[in-house]
Specification:
Elements lengths: L3 E7 L21 H9 L6 E9 L3 E10 L7 E10 L4 E7 L31 E4 L17
Antiparallel strand pairs: 1-4, 1-6, 2-3, 2-5
């Protein structure tokens, strides 16, 4: 089989909740130095995807980590591996501030159930497709490669 060249990830449907900040009542809201200082300490929620591959004899080796950019839900993003990979197993692990993301708000829910710790929209299930590069003469000879 051909060596793996990279993967396609369909962007997540989870959204980042809007950050709200209420300044202390004793501060001047027009004071630029206070606003600047507060902005410096609010960090963006960033997600990374760590890719590992099974290498002989039975060790998982980290191939690369990719910072995921913000994009509209369902947008395909392509990532090349640093080198071609020949492996029977490739694993993908989502890292970063996953708790800062939430699912798209739906109708108000009066059931009293708490929201899950991790948004279901961050699931990697059926979002990743592996790809390889080949000569034009080999097109269609290999089955589609996918990840679950």
């Amino acid at each position: 089989s051909p060596s793996l060249a990279g993967f396609r990830l369909d962007t997540f449907s989870a959204i980042k909740p809007r950050v709200t900040h209420s300044p202390s009542s004793d501060s001047d809201i027009w004071d630029k130095s206070v606003t600047f200082l507060e902005d410096r300490y609010i960090s963006q929620a960033v997600l990374y995807l760590q890719v590992s591959a099974l290498q002989e004899p039975h060790n998982m080796v980290t191939i690369a980590e990719y910072r995921l950019p913000e994009a509209r839900a369902g947008t395909p993003m392509y990532f090349d591996f640093p080198r071609p990979i020949q492996s029977r197993r490739v694993s993908f692990k989502l890292l970063g501030v996953v708790t800062a993301f939430a699912d798209e708000p739906s109708e108000p829910d009066d059931s009293g159930l708490r929201a899950p710790l991790v948004a279901t929209g961050l699931s990697l299930s059926n979002r990743i497709k592996l790809y390889y590069y080949c000569d034009p003469s080999e097109l269609g000879k290999w089955a589609s490669l996918s990840a679950v």
